[in-house]
Amino acid sequence: MVQIIGWGHTRFGKLAEGLEELIVQAGGEALAHSGVAPGDVDAIFVGHFNGGMVPEGFPSSLALSIHDDLRFTPAARLENACASGSAAVYAARDAIESGRAKVALVIGVEKMTHLPTAEVARGLGHAAYQPEEAGLSFPQVFAMFARAYFDRYGDHARTLAEIAAKNHANAMANPLAHLHKALPVEFCEVASEKNPVVADPLKVTDCSLVSDGAAALVMAADDVAASAPRAVRFRAAVQVNDFLPMSRRDPLAFEGPARAMRTAIAEAGLTLDDIDLAEVHDCFTIAELLVYEAMGLAEPGQGARALEEGIVRPGGALPVNMSGGLKAKGHPVGATGVSMHVLVARQVLGEAGEMQVAGAEHGLVFNMGGSGVANYASVLEPAR
Amino acid sequence: MVQIIGWGHTRFGKLAEGLEELIVQAGGEALAHSGVAPGDVDAIFVGHFNGGMVPEGFPSSLALSIHDDLRFTPAARLENACASGSAAVYAARDAIESGRAKVALVIGVEKMTHLPTAEVARGLGHAAYQPEEAGLSFPQVFAMFARAYFDRYGDHARTLAEIAAKNHANAMANPLAHLHKALPVEFCEVASEKNPVVADPLKVTDCSLVSDGAAALVMAADDVAASAPRAVRFRAAVQVNDFLPMSRRDPLAFEGPARAMRTAIAEAGLTLDDIDLAEVHDCFTIAELLVYEAMGLAEPGQGARALEEGIVRPGGALPVNMSGGLKAKGHPVGATGVSMHVLVARQVLGEAGEMQVAGAEHGLVFNMGGSGVANYASVLEPAR
Fold first, then answer.
1. Angle at A186 between CA A181 and CA A190, to 5 degrees
2. A256 CA to chain B: closest CA distance, Å?
């Protein structure tokens, strides 16, 4: 078994720090939090997308800057677009379960806000299938998902606005979030000068934030974790990749996400009713809506019910994105998957501060690269 | 234990194929070679540097294009600069040893020749430590190594020329090599119009080639490998990362490479005398010279002896880079580490064609990212 025994998390937002400083801050904080001495780290995994947004094309060894005792520690970078952070988490799982590592340090990081929006869009566009989608930005890709959804199930601009407003409200309780600004549903629903259309029907409030930030985890084998001050275990961890070209996938079926989440919950020996909260990949509000349906909270086309019935809201049966999600917590892409694991680990230990879901025992992470291409679903629970 | 049960390898060179086609060719060939059905692949690892040289910033799922039955198979990209290929190999080892995968498909790939030389240099330059080395090209970095070596141990331009000539001659026996052109030592030694200085004292013949290409491995757990037509096992596999900034490393000590190779040989329960051949990272001729010393073939400053005494030449006690090495086989950076494992696997099974080292039983791979930053050393032997 693999356990999470410590974490670090910079604030997400427009930060002065560069990539190396973010790595060092989050990684150093995670080591201190776990009580593990740097010299006891057996392997390092850095989750980082890059996409040309920063010149650091070989960031793995930057993590050795955290402490001199990390010199000679194996380090590698994992990339799976916006799921690069979870790719690093899962590589650490393999390293520990294989017996190669007793302790692994995982750091997810991205630096984006120094670039003009068009260059960020171009950077992220490198995660699309180039022969067919090179001209599309990710807002355009998810706008296609939204249009397909509206065409099949009716106009759901209001539902998307409800998701945006929920996540903005949730972020008020997360001191690490990029944006602390509660937005009324009406503001999110109606296009305006302050909330213009980005790619019809998606408006600014339907899109996640361009952020800088890093998050880190210390993960360990059972024997090391036994003496750690805190420990969270993976009850399940499932990765599913789908074809990269959108032309080879049914957008509304969201098959990769559905398979990942449903398999993870089944492998955990649980049902969705047993999950107390989820941090999911709301890169766009339409994605969160599709995730409700993919995880089985609602039938296809019925995701709005999860909001109407309060299920996914604070105090509901399965609060989603108590952190504010990518929408308001921010989305430094390589950091996101690690951040989600940090936040769910905090929740299941009752250490989530004002974000805390009372009595949370089983938490779900769903992190996605591309439009349902690289899909990671983890179920976390307290180890003791 | 983890075993290699099949491989694929495109020709290296200036190829018409794009990144996806290279992945599909090498990966498909490896699956066919192993006899494994695509539907039996449990995990895919793609080794790819990128550095902005191609727009495909999220290549992992391109491997699913090999066969429809690969849909939903977990895939991730590994990056560790010019050791990205070995990073993928080692991630596959972890996945298999952890029990998560019975069969893993590993593909290393790079596409470089479509770019002007200056843009390739800029792409590779993203593997340097940006705050201190952003203005340096890799030839300049290794020229500093060469100058430091010459300053301490005397002018070894002749030694470097011997290495270049050896590897060019070796490549004549490798049909997959980028360059089939034997070059006299004198041509390599003396700067000329046809062999100009790139970064003093390194000339064109001291530098590896800018190449396109892909290589692939099918790796499997013991029970699957037992019924495979061929099997090679890892007797040892060691990864060592060093600090990224050159200012924090003694270039001539080459500590990361030395630790990786010496630890691998020790963990294999062998001595250097037991190693029958090696494929090592001659990104520049000075690197191969330093590798001789780092692996213990010669004392510091005495690496030339390995050439003078014929040890590293065909028919010697430890032939190095029978494939032609990065120097003449070519160096599509993400493919290189996988290619090395393919070539050493072929050698220890007696399947290396005209490159074959008679009676080879134990082979060493040494793949390096940056100037001794990410270091991977594997010892391979026949599994049966």
1. 110
2. 7
What domains does chain A contain, in order, with CATH numbers?
2-115+211-225 (3.40.47.10)
Yes or no: say if B75 and A241 are a contact pair by the CB < 8 Å rule. yes
Contact yes or no for A241 and B126 at CB 8 A: no
Question: How is B162-209 classified by DSSP, letter by letter?
Answer: HHHHHHHHHHTT-TT-S------HHHHHS--SSS-EEETTEEGGGBPP
Burial A259-291 (b: 16+ CB within 10 A, else e): bbbbbbbeebebeeebbbbbbbbbbbbbbbbbb
Using a pLDDT cut of 90, give the percent of chain A over it.
99
Whether residue B139 contacts residue B198, with contact meaning beta carbons closer than 8 Å, is answered with yes
Give A297-328 pLDDT, tens digit per residue. 999 999 999 999 999 999 999 999 999 999 99
Amino acid identity of residue A40, one-letter, is D
Instruction: Report how far residue A164's alpha carbon sits from residue B208's, in angstroms, rounded to the nearest whole number.
Output: 52
Bridge partners (DSSP) listed for residue A106: A45, A217
Are the beta carbons of B193 and B351 closer than 8 angstroms?
A: no
The vertex-A109 CA angle with A104 and A110, nearest 5°, equals 165
Chain B from 196 to 255: CB within 8 A of any A CB: 239-244, 255
Residue type, B259: R
Is the pLDDT reported for residue B302 higher than 90? yes
Predicted TM-score of the model (pTM): 0.98
User: Are the beta carbons of B94 and A100 separated by less than 8 Å?
Assistant: yes
Size of interface A-B (CB pairs under 8 A): 184
A36 touches B at CB < 8 Å: no
B134 pLDDT above the threshold of 90:
no
Q: Is the pLDDT of residue B135 over 90?
A: no
**pLDDT-derived band of residue A343, with 50, 70 and 90 as boundaries?**
very high
For the beta carbon of residue B55, count every other beta carbon within 10 angstroms. Answer: 16
